## 1
Amino acid sequence: MKMRRFRTGLFAATSITIVMAAMPAQAQAQERLAPVSVWGDRTETDPGSLAVIDSAEIDETLADHPAEILNKLPGVNIQMNSGQEHLVAIRSPVLTGGAGQGSFLILENGVPVRSPAFGNVNSLFEPHHEVASAIEVVRGPGSAKYGSNAVHGLVNVILPEVGGGSEAVGSYGTLGRWRSDVTLDEGEHWLAAVSLQKDTGWRDNTGVDQQKLTLVGDWMLGAWDTTTWLTASNLNQETAGFAQGPDAYKDEDIAKSNPNPEAYRDAWSARAGARLSGDFSGGTLTLTPYAHTQSMIFAQHFLPNGGVEKNGSTGGGLMARYEREASDSLTWRVGADVDMASGWLTEIQPDPFGFFPGDSRFPQGKHYDYTVDTLMGAVWGELDFALSEQVHLLAGLRAEAHEYDYSTDLAPGINGRFNVPADRTDNFDLLTPKLGLIWSVSEGVDLYANYARGERAPQASDLYRLQSLQVAGQVEEETLDSVEIGARGTALEGRLVYDLAAYWMEKDNFFFRDSDGLNVPDGSTEHKGVEASGALELTPVLSLSGSASWSDQTYTFDRITGSGTETIRDGNEIDTAPEWLANVSLDWQATDAIKLSLNVDHVGEYFVDPANTTTYPGHTVLGARGAWAFSDSAEVFLIVRNLTDEEYADRADLAFGNERYFPGEPLNATLGMKKTF
């Protein structure tokens, strides 16, 4: 099975690479793949995998969903669900529940969009990616610097910078989706940006209304260089359930239908922050105070009992860092972070439900109703030491402590398959090291090796949203140890930019939800893979770019259950983890005014259940884009998605004995106009 899939995936990836691919130009290709310093948090001597999507690529992609642009990167597989729903995978399977909330850190201007204990598996719809100046993605553990939840990687959305210019974009699509993005830039001290999206939905009863707002200020407060920001988002959507049954996504009537027309998701969030930087005692001191709040209510269409969840959290904190160049060969950095938050969750089952008469596992009424107050404190340090002009050593260590104070408004005890714990306090300590080496073997070519540990404290839902077979206090800190080697640089007189990486990771105390919706508290997994990305200038007007990744991700423990579909054996492949991912594009500057692009996305075959009994065959989807700049400041563009009208699934899994699919969009086109001023 593995060998057949290996050959199939290799052929697909090779064919795709030969036939298509793209990048605006050599300079833009280099900008995309080269390490950058965003907010002063990263340096070119950082070993490890880092990709940056710049503003030009963000504008050209016009991603209605962040998955459209993030999936261009190697090792990244954001699976779209309904509307703005999604699940994230970075060097990992697609993770749900607490694992999905806590394994990927989502930041905005380098600040977590939520406090550590209150993550959101759909958290990418909160940052204002539509108008971002860049999106930074770190693949692999980032806990040594960024703390809990950066286990498999992080996504950092960088808001637009003052002075970048004003812009207006409007578009309409054949599936009934319109969008408008407007940025007004005063040019010296402030800017404001608004994004509006309305989508009638191509599936039944799946409309989406979304609004986002960003305000950015740039000031000098005495000796402090200060940037401030305020962002807010509001999402109201009718949510579709899975299409169920073997190959259900291939049946047009089933694909368009919505088995849960009453399902919905309403979510609101706001974040405020400031970054103050100034010289202090021969170094640079940076202070970042922040605050955030969010609330959400949604019908859980992915569960058979039709529960309604309401949750919210409010928090804030301070991030402080100090950097000093001690000598020509040594730079050191130290930091301290503190975060305080209060969150709440209520789950209600409005109607009785059972798989058979007398089934009492899903009782009507409240299942959970609790609040959690949290406190996180951390200190970290980092040494950047030049062993020679060509070799740099980077060593880092972060110590972090979490405290949870939980209280429930329901009587403790077992209620069907649900278990309400009594009031309690929990504490977790994390220690995450990092050690890396980067060697500049020649001009434009770097080799690196990197060890890092990722670690996360449990999510509040891991600890207090228990099931009848769980015991309070059973969940421990999840850890992931990663070893990575890689090479990046340029060749062919600068016409080729490349980034290669190979990694091995081992995860312990893995807490996840199985295909029967039951929590598994003590799993272990192994992840290994190879990733490649590159951009090649074929001619002055024709360029090629793309990425490909291969991974082998397996369970490394046994879990024998009465249900055959839920039996996990050591060595089973992890479900929802494609062996092959590839993205390539071809870009042609036909004239000074006309630019044409052709791109292809490939997702390989993967198992949809942990017992490895059922597979999704994968898919390959083509797209195209054309733009005509009819003046120096205005262009008309056309984006065509799913050019061949491929029948495919954005997401596939097996749960409660059913094959489930979120069907991918059919052939559709978006026509729009962009104006800069």
## 2
Amino acid sequence: MLQWIRRFPIPKIYLSFLLLWLYYAIFSANFLALFGFVFLLVCLFFQFPWKTVTKVLLVCSLFGSWFVFQKWQQEEASQHLVNTVDTVRILPDTIKVNGDSLSFRGKADGRLFQIYYKLQSEAEKEKFQELSELHEMVVKGKLASPQGASNFAGFDYRNYLKTQGIYQTLTISEIVELKQISSWDIGENLSSLRRKAVVWIKRNFPDPMRNYMTGLLLGHLDTDFEEMNELYSSLGIIHLFALSGMQVGFFMDAFKKLLLRLGLTQEKFKWLAYPFSLVYAGLTGFSASVIRSLLQKLLAQHGFKSLDNFALTIIILFLIMPNFFLTAGGVLSCAYAFILTMTGEEVAGIKGLVRESCIISLGILPILSFYFSEFQPWSILLTFFFSFLFDMVLLPLLSILFCLSFIYPITQFNYLFEWLENIIRYISQLSTRPLVFGQPSLWILILLLITLALIYDYRKNLKKISMLVIVAISLFLVTKYPMENEITVLDMEQGQSIFLRDMTGKTILLDVGEKSERDKKEAWQERISSSNAERSLIPYLKSRGVAKIDQLVLTTSDTKQLDHVLEISKAFELEEILVSEETLSKREFMDKLKKSKVKVAAIKTGQQLFIFGSSLEAFTSQNSDKKESMVLYGKLLNQTFLVTGDIEDKFLTKSYPKLQADIVITHQQSSNKKTDVEVFKTLQPKITVMSVDKKKKFKERNGENNQELGNSIYKTDQKGAIRFKGWSSWRIETVR
């Protein structure tokens, strides 16, 4: 087999590249991927003889059949769901305890489920925090389908779980029985072993030392690392905790040295490396980057080097982990490995390492933009320095301390990690915001990758490089400044948020959603979680290339918005915040708002907000609870818009009885609020967009439907985010 692989008539990197396009053509059903595959096939016919082409087509057909089979299996599993689950087997290394929230993955009847449970007591919480053996539980609960993306460029939880082989979630209402079991399944036992290691570290080492130990050795970061996780992410160096070739090389080399000292030969080590790799992969949770690195290491033992090594790794991943390239981790891991493979031979000395760091950072930039929409320039320098600290100092140190802990835990080094975290906090204060590039389309992404590849190929040709750099910059600018008008009503789960941007780049943000209200809890019940703004609003704005917001308008004085306002002010440059005159008199509200360090001004009735070559006029009205709310009205392009905010329909029409609008954007924020048919007959809108609070249940009036209202209704809880786009007229896009 190895000899046949070595003698394959075309370069293996070409074959892997061809299979990659075929993979995405089948799994993503994407026209661009199909076009790329066909184009490469055409090139193949011109470059190689018919005999060679026939062999390549045979390999492609075999892999294509495998891809089709895998996709069919996924579709079958997603369509044939189970109705009930009574008994669940826990995968211990997936256990996460966050306040009174317990989540883990479990097996039932050969299927994998994502499971949630609300802990009932502090004692029960401690029990699950210490749980490491294989357990089976008899439960009562409710099955559901995972939620898909609700905002453009938002996280698609359903697709993510699908790549993990999970098609349903289970919310447990009662644990009837919990019992320890044994198993012959290697994966389950490795899961238990990994969990035992995590529990042991948390039990014997102090914070923050234990988080670095579990992170760097086992690829496990707990919720109590959330603050530092955000700081490392903001600096662009969170990848230091991603297990990769450095860790794999360190442990494989250590294992090799141990066996050689024990008298084993190189040949015996070669075969013992396979079970060791399996155990190590299991201890790291079968991380995508670890499996890729292990494959490359094992293939190197058989004489496959450089591009051949990388190409064969990709081909094997197609076979053993078909979902690998559907995850951000898998794509980024292979992208980094490819760039290192291409540039590794030219590295020499400190100068070479600096050059390598720059090449890797710039080479990976299009893919980082596609997944995260931003890039932290500081990361180039910080990665260069901190990678030495993490890989050359912390990794060996923590490995030694972990092994010694079974004799006697040495915790005196904790001060080193406290010192490190203080440095990270200090650097984060000095650093600037990441550069926001926006999320490129697939076409632009491919063009960027091709352009950067050509820049590397022609790196010694100054004239060609200059032209290619201009092309690359132009592609990034097209992504950041899309040159089109848009009005987007985001799905904020609670509250509303509307983003407006015209072709000139002028931006207005109307409200920022509301912080979810939580019942008062005891200390052990408190959860660490991201806000609605962090999950929905901020990622969307960055995906559109937004780094600056000209005007933030708060249509109400509800304090539940304020935490989100502060988050927005940290993530973006805010020119000014506009509030109603009534809001200016609320001292508590204004004191908290001033923490954003942004200019705050009042917007008066009749004042205009200029955008789209036109304007929105602001005026106020009162609700039944005597609270004022701001309404915005105006003709934008060819349609008249009315943004009602939190104003109740009947109060709106009482104050402005002759008001009419083509498009009404309203907020259905209270459980007893229903659409007033008579009101909408007065307004006569063609389209109604409703921001719906998901956690509140709404009862529509019997018989109310689109025919009665005489318009099209778009609700965020049904359609997700709703976006109006266009140059001279509007077209509507929805997430679902």
## 3
Amino acid sequence: MSLISFDQLQRIVTAFSPAAGSPASPLETTQFLRSVQPSLMPRTSIHQGAMSGLAILSARAASNRVDYLADKITPNEDSLAQRLIARGLLAGVGLGMRKLPDENDTAWPAAFSRLTGELIEAGAIGGFLYEAITATRHRSSASRKGAIANMAVSAASLSFALYRSRENLKARRDFFTEDFDKLQLTLPKSIAVATVMTGVGTSIGFAHQGTRRALEQFYGPGFIHTGLARTTNNVFWAGAFTGLYWAGISKIGKSNEKIDPGYAQPPSTPLVSGSADSLCSFEDLGQQGRRYVSDVLPPSLIEATMSEPAKHPIRIFVGFNEQPLYPSGRSEIALAEMERTGAYERGTLLLISPTGTGWVDHSMIESAEFFTRGDLASVCIQFGRYPSFLSLQKVRAGRQQFRQLVWGVHQRLQGMDPADRPRVLVFGESLGAWASSDVVMKRGIEGLDHYSIDRALWFGMPQLARWSAAGMDRPGQLTPDGTVGVFDRWEELELLNVEERQALRIVQLSHDNDPITLATPTLLYRKPDWLGEERGRGVPEGQRWSPVVTFLQTAIDAANAMRDSPGDFRSTGHDYRADTARFVAEGYQLPYTEEQLAAVEVQLRSLEIDRAARMKPAAETEGGHTPSPAKASGEHHKGVHLPHLRGTRTAGARWLQAFRKHAPPATEDLVEAEKGPEEPAETPEGAKAN
């Protein structure tokens, strides 16, 4: 007796048919094939499977909605002609919605309509194909010969789908050869993960429907009762997912409290935050802040690299935990730290807006310290504790505290002799570029002068930033021609002559294949310019736009945009380390020779390898601390009265006079520290002082 009958075998084979498995099968298969095509970044099997699973779920959801509408407008469900006509009509409606006028992408209702039209059209066409194939299969299945033919067609279509998937993955491998050797992306693993993803998504959908039906029975019949039941059900599930979300990011945020074994000791020099003389406690700096202040370059290393005398750089960092509920308080502490350390006596001030975790590009700050010969005071204020993609809601706070910082610096400079004023530079990367650019977004180049900012350098500006959305990265009324430059790599900046480089007030480094700078909701419904005929460096020729899928691809690519190895600098994606040294020197117009530049680039790689070795045991250590409670505005912080910046009016000379009454003299106490008597013996190979 056979273990499986012929009819059962036929049903199994048909169930896996990309065209006749279900009404959603054609669209699901299409979306899967699109999901494995080349995109901006390489990815692991898990990431690929998750992305494919989300693409399949979106196709299934669209097809289910189309099926529901087709059933509503079909009088006789048994009539194939009526079902085909209904799906044809829906495809036409979707086409009409998709063709709505596109006026600069400003009208969200129109944009949503176009996206809906895309999905309706695709779902209707897929359902039409399913209905036609199913009808043909039923007619031919009457005979054993016809059934075998149907099975052969199903098997052939599945084989073709797998073949196309394999070819798409091969194209990805050919484009990212070296990376794929490391990532080991395979089709079987990707399909397995996608299957699990779709299974989980489908189960959640069934659970949502089950709770809805239970609530409808509980509330009873009637339009009002049904509406109440569905509202309650949606609120319940929204609350559940919101709770899981916040639980997840809370766990992620705890990494800010971890203390790396290699960064457990406070710095000894008073020229940085977190030292014994600092207004900021070393514990409250957070993980990224402790790394930032501990890695300050000693003068001996700068002198050995640049072959010129050097000073001890000043690094100021105010952690999120210093004032977790009061962003302006962090700005006040930063301004007080600048007075304490004698920052205004340096030749250059570098004001930095970090990423969501408080991370600052070490290659950037180290390059700046090298090229300024240590005559630099850098100031950074943390505004969040989560990765940037989870910190979008923190941009406003980051913008607020950065504006207060630059305004406080501006007012302080107004009381100085113009000849003694330091240059003021601004830097931001990723979310930090967003927050710092928003400060001058409505004023453009005039805004730089308004805040006494000489130049700004931004890496990886997100497409979501208002600066990009408002077209400020292109010549216009607020950004005169020649004052703003956007570059993919050094060779583009090198084409400008000396006068053109000097005229640049704002320099943006944005790789053509950086998904963080390209990700935008418009990818859901509109083909982007960067997928046109003329493509930038690193954008695969084989990548094609499709609704929803391209958005999902770019989002997943953003998570893989900075897969860096210590000392292995690359000019691709969101990794700007290979370009950093040159752009810091040229963007800020800092003096250097080609020999010095080459020496700096060697040191940057060596320093990063050393830093990675110090951070390596961090995953094994769960050390942390209890954050200090928020301090009231204007209190005495370690005996120093902080300047008030709360509100619309920022105090200038008054708070400075008040500060001077309480603050100890800065310059005299720091002379010996600047000479570096507490520095350990260092070699140019990359050791750093604590």
## 4
Amino acid sequence: MFLRANLILLVLFLFACNSRVENLVLSPVFSDYMVLQQSTEVVFWGKSSPKENIEITGTWGKSSSVIADNNGEWELKLPTPSAGGPYEVVVNDSKNSIVYKDILIGEVWLASGQSNMQWKLNQCEDCIDNQDEEIANANYDEIRFFNNPMDLSMEVVKNQSWRKVKSEYAKEREGLNSKESFSATGYFFARELYKKLKVPIGIIGSSWGGTRVEAWTSPNKLKQIYSENQELLSGIDMSYNEYEKGIERYNDSISNVNADLLGFKIFEIPEWSEDSIHWKKIKSGWENLNLVDKNFSKENFDDSSWPRWIANQPNPYDIERKGTFETVFDYEKKLLSDGVIWFRTNIFVDNNNEDYTLVFKDGIDDTDQTYFNGRLIGNTFSYNKERNYIVSKEIINKGSNSIAIRITDLRGIGGFNGPVLLKNSSEIINIPYNSFRFKHHAFVNALSSFMVHDLNLTELLNVSDSLEKMILIPKDVNSPNAYSRLYRNILSNVIPYTIKGTIWYQGESNVSNYSEYETLFSAMIDDWRETWGYDFPFYYAQIAPFPEPGTLGVREAQRNTLKSTDNTGMAVLMDIGEEDDIHPHNKQDVGKRLALLALDKQYGFNYVSSGPEYKSHQAKGRYLYVDFDSVGSGLGFIGGENGFEIAGNDNVFYPAAAKIVNNRIRLYSKDVKRPTNVRYGWKNWTVGTLFNKEGLPASSFSSTKFR
């Protein structure tokens, strides 16, 4: 039933983590320490010699067998008992045997989304509330994680395996794709389930920061919902190779038109990966990338015409980071705030008798090629990894020395995340941002191509708006955000591993097309259920308030998805957003609220699992009364009775005074004589104040259609 050539792809050919046998292979998602879903028939799949008899036996007394097909592919279902263990699972064919040890039977959930689900307990310093204590206490033998890595090559997954929750693993920071690391939100969700259910909990983590919902959706499902793009997507049901070739031909034509129309030089963006193992294989593509800019790295290049770096734009994400592109270029102008920028400075060194280290504290976002006196000393792709580049004394001048850095930001925030230092054993030289001269050298077009320009800063600022309207946009094919890319190259690693359900935390990267998000999100949920072959529960975190335009639109789309898609639940986060950080530090409540939904709806605990949900409203004279579902033991305000607005037939909204009357909200504004409509929390950035007495916040909402 689940033998899907387009899904299984490479994973069917991967060796089990604890085995090096020939001819009999299973996906790495099967390993020692795995958790299998209780009281069901769990799916095993793999590859062997053609027509081989495959038998799988669990030491709980159940077995199952199947004959491999002509390609050697096979799939079977093994009955599981109620929760317990440890057990062993033995997989045999006529020549080989694989034994998986210390297997637990319990509840298995898939945890997916973007960076807020990916975020680890020790992602960075002070990234999680009560971080040190949480890490120290993360010791649960019966909570286990499989980390599906962020690697489009599908190579890193070969080294992954299930791991128990251990404090020593929770301390990992740099190894974001290591087998030891695990999602903080996923962990807090699992911990809450474990405490209440008292059975083993397995979490399959499969997230990728900054990703759009389209990347997680199958091509056939996208084809169904994007009928207006039929011409472009007409080959989507062909083989992936044929489809990608078609997209590449389309993009080539787009590049030619852009080059002719604008006079820019067009270059393909090299392959990239935030995984350090894969980066080792592809970094040469960036080292050798020539954007007609090799002279910029030379020691004696004349940069006197370049302006100095002066941060003069308010950065909505982090006001302290004055080295990000967004502090010089308006963050809403993505054409400028993403792209390639060269930085150059000269630094005086008195002691050239020992090596120095050039340090970029907290990293560079996304990639850098760094030169000291014209010599390449560093080449890294990572949005947050600290750089420590050795500067050999052999290349250091006594006196003036040049530093040249090409920084490429592909999306989101870009540039220096922290101080730049040159240090040795006895001195530390701080290199201020305003000592750098800079040149914006290339635009990024849909993560598909670089567009190299020769505009100075004044020209760039003057023509950027008109350029943005003129540039033709290619289709993203090489990045994680390409249509169906993560469905194909990431999710396929774990399909169709038997799960109880899915938790999801994503949406921030779809703010630019929030009007489509409900359709896209509902389609993705349906798509996954169709792929797995059953209607599992899907619980998701509504994104927290944040200043970025479109945030409100995504929140509203997520609220509406509850009505349009069955067997779903939404954890509202109106009270935990942070104005200067898109990653709320309170991951504990996110996990708890997702767990509360599961415990209530899936496990029969009959909890109040949602905050007040807008139901209806009624006008009485100059007052407007609002009714809610999920009020629990009653409505309440925390932090003020604000956030409500009402409007008359003209739909001009005014702030309204709110009061709880008989478990309803009564609203009044002196500016509205005949109220007809209501909204609450209707801003990108706000702090929710309406809760039920169980402490769960209400979502933002409007009685009028979002515009």
